[in-house]
Write a structure and sequence with these properties.
Blueprint: H1 2-39, H2 48-115, E1 124-126, E2 129-130, H3 136-148, E3 154-159, E4 162-167, E5 174-175, H4 177-186, H5 193-206, E6 208-210, E7 214-215, H6 218-229, E8 240-244, E9 247-251, E10 256-259, H7 261-274, E11 280-283, E12 286-289, H8 296-303, E13 311-314, E14 317-320, E15 325-327, H9 330-337, E16 343-347, E17 349-351, H10 357-360, E18 367-375, H11 381-394, E19 398-399, E20 404-406, H12 407-411, E21 422-427, E22 430-435, H13 439-452, E23 456-459, E24 486-488, E25 495-502, E26 505-512, E27 520-531, E28 535-544, E29 548-552, E30 557-568, E31 571-583, E32 588-595
Parallel strand pairs: 1-6, 3-11, 28-32
Antiparallel strand pairs: 1-2, 3-4, 5-7, 8-9, 9-16, 10-12, 13-14, 15-17, 18-26, 19-25, 20-24, 21-22, 23-24, 25-26, 27-30, 29-32, 30-31
Helix pairs in contact: 1-2, 2-5, 3-4
């Protein structure tokens, strides 16, 4: 463009130059003629006006001619400029067209290459796992392996002097692996060639990470919170009730501290989002709250039961257990609750059934299909009391086919009001006294009997340490509000639990009707590793220097695998992994004297 302008200017300057020269020539001609006229003046006086007029006309014609030349030159320059612009515009359009065609061609080729690709695009990761160039199944396997290894990860919850730990497994953490894999696989497969190619190139250059969502059972948070509320100092006391000796006992609530469940849930989700195997600690969020008001109408709905005799039918074979009839006068109870008291006693109207499941006897449950016995120290009165209470709760329980049993639901909360005593329990690596100590022996004995009866276990966890009453891999711990033992009656007929605690032996048996094919079942364990215990020394000024007293004998921990071995006519039919359990080492605690020698 600059060159064209310069050329145009040069041409204009040239035209002007020519015009000036022509004008100068005209000026020169009159001067010469004037000189001649001066010499010949006397002779040509009469012709002077004519010559002057002619010269003026010629001048005007020449000026017009020069102006026409200028205009023509300008038009010619404009035509040249327009042609140049048109040429350059065409060149640019041609180049753009070529680039568009090349882009479309390359994009099409790129898309065709990826049409047959059944793997996740390069540069994509899910959480901490690189799933580039994996099939969906390969990605699923890799993620399942990675996240299943986190089941035993623990989150430590603390408040003041209280501390507890909860595993991912107990929280029932579910990682949304399928959703994450779908998101990863869909990248570059939206259906728009250009968008897909751009997305694929982005992942190649910058990478793409997809967060995996973790979901936990909110009901578990409620149970965990309730367990914490039962153990922290100054905890809120909610109104409660229980039936005892023909009376409804209602206790008033009391203002106090309780767990902020929503905030605790959010804190746990934050831990899960960090996706780390490092130790995680949460300070339990606590709030002060007022207890709920006593709702006597709701209590009546829950307590009221119509009397029902136990009975069974043969076709199909079904057992219907007995039920006590329970009722009370609601209006009288409302009047009683107007008094400011800590505890209220409401008389109940109890109607007893005339026939119980026990009365049905061998007709309904003729066959013992599973049993287990464990030993206990009968001289330990408190622990024995707890064993008997738990056994009495589950004794006589009837489960219909496909019905689930919950140990915590049947046994109930372990409280002083329910008759439980202080006895030895495991806590923070030590054996200490705790309310309800010993009831895990009944749940463990029941667990073995359930496996022997070929029933399906749906919730079970091993103890923190190896127990004295059953080998590692054969126990089942329970904690109110956080850990339950559950199983389902997967047999064709109803089953009945029989539990006894007597003479140093606790026995749980499952009674029912034998199947057409009945198997012999056992639990076999295999030790995988041993975890050595450590020793803790505590300085004790009450003991002489050099004196040592062993407060707690240490014991090794271990890792074991438990298998369910099924036999028919003495031959092994199947061997199924029941669990992989880790038991911590119990530290040895020794008090070392630092006082005077006494000499």
């Amino acid at each position: 463009m600059e060159e064209t302008k310069n050329e145009t200017k040069e041409q204009e300057n040239s035209a002007v130059s020519v015009l000036e020269k022509e004008e100068n020539k005209e000026k020169d001609v009159p001067q010469i003629e004037n000189k001649k006229e001066e010499k010949e003046a006397p002779k040509e006086e009469k012709k002077e006006p004519e010559n002057s007029q002619e010269n003026q006309s010629e001048k005007e014609i020449k000026i017009k001619t020069l102006e026409q030349a200028k205009e023509e030159q300008k038009e010619e320059n404009l035509i040249i400029s327009n042609k140049t612009k048109y040429f350059k515009t065409n060149v640019i359009l041609i180049v753009i067209g070529i680039l568009v065609v090349l882009t479309a061609l390359l994009s099409t080729i790129f898309a065709v290459i990826n049409i047959g690709n059944t793997k996740i695009m390069n540069g994509i990761s899910i959480g901490k796992i690189d799933v580039s160039n994996m099939t969906k199944e390969e990605a699923k396997q890799a993620l399942n392996e990675f996240y299943s290894a986190k089941e035993e990860n623990e989150i430590y919850l603390t408040y003041d002097e209280f501390e507890t730990a909860i595993t991912y497994k107990a929280l029932e953490v579910e990682y949304q692996i399928e959703n994450a894999i779908k998101q990863a696989y869909d990248i570059g497969r939206a259906g728009n060639i250009f968008k897909d190619n751009v997305d694929i190139l982005k992942t190649w250059i910058y990478g793409k990470n997809i967060e995996i969502e973790a979901i936990i059972d909110n009901d578990m948070i409620s149970q965990i919170s309730q367990n914490i509320n039962n153990n922290i100092k100054g905890a809120i006391v909610q109104p409660s009730y229980y039936v005892e000796n023909g009376k409804l006992i209602i206790t008033s609530g009391k203002e106090g501290l309780k767990v902020n469940e929503q905030q605790l849930l959010e804190e746990i989700y934050k831990v899960l989002k960090t996706d780390t195997d490092d130790e995680q600690n949460i300070i339990i969020p606590i709030v002060t709250a007022e207890p709920e008001k006593i709702d006597i109408d709701k209590i009546h709905q829950e307590v009221y039961t119509e009397v029902q005799n136990a009975y069974y039918t043969k076709e199909p074979f079904t057992i219907y257990p007995e039920k006590d009839g329970i009722d009370f006068d609601v209006e009288s109870a409302k009047v009683a609750l107007t008094e400011q008291k800590e505890e209220y006693e409401i008389p109940l109207v109890i109607t007893k059934p005339t026939k119980t499941v026990k009365d049905i006897g061998t007709e309904a449950f003729p066959d013992k299909v599973g049993t287990c016995s464990t030993k206990y120290v009968a001289s330990n009165v408190n622990r024995t009391t707890n064993l008997k209470l738990a056994a009495q709760k589950i004794n006589g329980t009837v489960l219909m086919p496909n019905e689930e049993f919950s140990y915590n639901k049947i046994v109930g909360e372990r409280t002083i009001a329910n008759g439980y005593k202080e006895a030895a329990v495991y806590s923070n690596g030590e054996v200490v006294n705790g309310l309800g100590g010993g009831i895990c022996q009944i749940s463990s004995t029941l667990y073995d009997a359930v496996v022997m009866a070929n029933l399906k276990v749906t919730a079970r966890r091993n103890h923190q340490f190896v127990t004295s009453y059953l080998p590692a891999g054969k126990d089942a711990t329970v904690v109110w509000g956080s850990q339950d033992f559950k199983f389902v009656n997967t047999r064709s007929y109803p089953v009945r639990i029989e539990a006894t605690v007597n003479g140093g032996v606790a026995t749980v048996s499952i009674w029912g009707i034998k199947e057409d094919v009945e198997y012999d079942i056992s639990i076999e364990t295999k030790k995988i590793a041993t975890i050595a215990y450590t020793t803790q020394y505590i300085q004790d000024p009450s003991l002489p220097v050099g004196k040592e007293v062993v407060v707690q004998a240490g014991s090794n921990g271990r890792k074991v695998e438990a298998y369910k071995v099924v036999k028919l006519n003495g031959k092994v039919v199947s061997t199924t992994l029941l669990s992989k359990d880790t038991y911590n080492a119990m530290k040895r605690i020794v008090r070392v004297g630092t006082g005077t020698t006494g000499q």
